[in-house]
Amino acid sequence: MAIAIRDVREHELDSVLALNNAAGPTILPLDSTKVRWFFDNADYFRVAEVDGHIAGFLIALRGNADYESPNYLWFRERYPAFLYIDRIVIAKPYRGLGLGRIFYSDATSYAEVRVPVLACEVFLEPRDDVSVLFHGTYGFHEVGQQIMPGLGKRVSLLAKDLPSFTFVRDTYLLGPMGQLPNQPWLVERVRNGSRTSLRAASGH
């Protein structure tokens, strides 16, 4: 089985939309306009490709996005810098393969050289114990709860500290280079036809 985590491609947005809206009640529905908005604006938007088929995706945004999600705004009001995981979806035939942990490891690798905190939420109404346990064992802790406006459902707001960021910040972002090294795995995804510079992507 060949598994690849890579940036989403424009022609795959319809597949992402279909996966999202078939995921169940713990994933908020999307329409084509919102999927396009994520494609144009998300800092992290990657898919899992298994033997040539899209098996899932993860979307995440840093704290400077023009995004109206109440959970995202909760973190933006309290944290100066973070990467917020908006959603992760794994298609049913591919669940149980560990793709969730692979995605979270990849998102952590992206985040820890840019921000000090990885953030997300899980539904408590209905309670998603699989997700609660997954995040707890991956190092997240609850930093708050809220009732989502318009939905009336309670969510647990979770954060994970990324201690590696202090080293990266002091050695590179605030060091003689003033930016991250020019390496392929550190390059930002293309958005709106261009890549964010390493300096800007680093928040420095």
List the helices and strands and how they pair.
Blueprint lengths: L2 E5 L5 H9 L10 H10 L2 E7 L2 E10 L7 H7 L6 E8 L8 H13 L5 E7 L5 H9 L3 E7 L6 E8 L2 H10 L16 E2 L2 E2 L2 H4 L3
Parallel strand pairs: 4-5
Antiparallel strand pairs: 1-2, 2-3, 3-4, 5-7, 6-7, 8-9
Helix pairs in contact: 1-2
Describe the fold and architecture.
- With 204 residues, this protein is α+β, with helices and mostly antiparallel strands.
- 30% of the residues lie in helices and 27% in strands.
- It has one domain: 3-Layer(aba) Sandwich (Aminopeptidase), CATH 3.40.630.30.
- Mean pLDDT is 91; it is low at 200-204.
Number of domains: 1
Q: Please describe the biggest sheet, giving its number of strands, its sense, and whether it closes into a barrel.
A: 7 strands, mixed
Kindly report the spatial arrangement of strands forming the biggest sheet.
1-2-3-4-5-7-6
**In which range does the helix fraction lie?**
25-40%
CATH homologous superfamily name?
Gcn5-related N-acetyltransferase (GNAT)
- Rg of Cα set: 17 Å
What is the 3D form?
A: globular
Q: List low-confidence stretches.
A: 200-204
Count of discrete alpha- or pi-helical segments spanning 4 or more residues: 7
Q: Tell how many strands the DSSP assignment holds.
A: 9
Query: Quaternary arrangement of the chains shown?
Result: single chain
One letter per element, helices H and strands E, the order comes to EHHEEHEHEHEEHEEH
End-to-end span in angstroms?
Answer: 40 Å
Q: What is the name of the CATH architecture?
A: 3-Layer(aba) Sandwich
Mean pLDDT: 91
Question: What is the highest CATH level, the class?
Answer: Alpha Beta
Structure class = alpha+beta
